[in-house]
Each structure stands twice: as structure tokens, then as C-alpha cells.
Amino acid sequence: MALFSDIKTFFDLKNRLCGFVILCIFSSFSLNAAPILILGDSLSASYGMPENEGWVQLLRAKMPEHTLINGSVSGETSAGGLRRLPALLESTQPKVLLVELGGNDGLRGFPPKQLKTNLSNIIKLAKDQQVTILLSEIMVPPNYGPRYAAQIANVYKELAQEHNITLMPFFMETIVIDSTLMQRDGIHPNAAAQPQIADFMLPWFLQAL
After folding, report:
1. 8 Å CB contact between 99 and 81
2. Where do the SGNH hydrolase-type esterase domain residues begin and end (predicted)?
């Protein structure tokens, strides 16, 4: 009886161990297969350079186990991103969404209230699909005046608090002051800046995953 008991215990432990290994494999596969969707404007759409030189493509090389889907469009506003998001969520089913929108709203002088409404609706759509959200801060050029710039900045802080999501610092903050990293228009980062942006983004995405 003792021998039988030992054999039975052995196989019970073996079966449990196999089950644990299988669970770990599937858990790892599920994590590694998790798509990341980037909903942005020209700052994320490789404006002014080949797509393979942009920070999204460089980040793909740093995260080969994950799928990065670049849903960014040059000139995109928060309203445009909101219109496109439902189809993107359905087709890509992301685990993480980076929202990098609002720069063009600011450059066009759109009301901060309108920007906040659009971004809030974007966040709600993603949350309804159980998507983890990274919201990138956006800053407008100083010639728009300190009052308007402060109102735009407050939109992102308020959204992060109200929706309990991660607010990511504006990745252009240290780049825009270095002319060697900027294109001639003084608005868009050049190819030399892209590795720096990819390095900035990496820990935020890993944390979100």
C-alpha cells in the first residue's frame, strides 16, 4: 500500500507539474503575442523620412516578441483619431494603446475643451475593450501664448487623473531644443532623433505590458 501510495503521489506531482508548465507556456505566448497600437500624428508617423527610420520601426527591433501597429497619420487631430479608433480596435485587438494626439489641435488653435472631449472618448472606447492606455503629453509652441499652452497641458493631466491612466511625459521636450535633432520646419524630429525617441518609449511600453 505504501508503494502504491508513493507511485500515485509521483504521478499526481508529475501531472501537476506538466499542467503548470503548459500554463506558463500559454501565459507567455499570450503576453508575447499582445499587440501594441500607436494612435498618433506626424511625430509617430515617420514624417519627412522613410518609415523604416522612424521610432516605431526602431522600437519593433527592441521588442521583437511583440507586435507594434502604427496607426499614426500625419496631420491627424484628436477628432480624426476618434473617428478611426473603433475600426483599429476591432482589427488589431491591442493590449496596449498609446495615444499621441493633440499637437495638431493645438497648432490649429482648437479649443482645449474640444480636445479634452475627443481624447476622453478615445480613452473610453479603449477602456471598454479592456485596453491598457498610455497617454502622451503634448506641448504647443510658446508663440501660442502661456495661457493657451497651460490650458492644453492641463487637458492631459486632468484626463490622466479622471480616467486613472498613465500619463507619459512629452517625448519631444528634450529633442525640440536641440536643432541637430529637428527637421528644418522646427516642428518634426529628424532621423537622428528617432533612436532617442525609441529608447524613451521602451520602458513605458514594457511597464504597460
Report:
1. yes
2. 38-193
User: Around 111, how many Cα atoms within 13 Å sit in the side-chain half-sphere?
Assistant: 4
Which residue numbers are catalytic? Answer: 42, 185, 188
pLDDT tens-digit map of 3-21: 444 444 444 544 444 444 3
Domain regions of the chain by residue span: 32-208
Question: For the segment 11-49, what is each residue's pLDDT rounded down to a tens digit?
Answer: 454 444 444 433 343 334 444 568 999 999 999 999 999
CA distances from 71 to 15, 37, 134, 171 (A): 44, 7, 14, 18
Q: What is the pTM of this model?
A: 0.83
Instruction: Give the residues across from 166 on adjacent strands.
Output: 134
The CATH number for 32-208, chosen from 3.40.50.1110, 3.40.50.1240, 1.10.10.60, 3.40.50.1980, is 3.40.50.1110
> What integer pLDDT is reported at residue 142 of this predicted model?
86
How many C-beta atoms lie closer than 10 Å to residue 87's C-beta?
A: 10
Residue 125 contacts residue 85 (beta carbons within 8 Å):
yes
> How is residue 193 annotated by DSSP?
G
Q: What percentage of the chain carries pLDDT values higher than 70?
A: 84
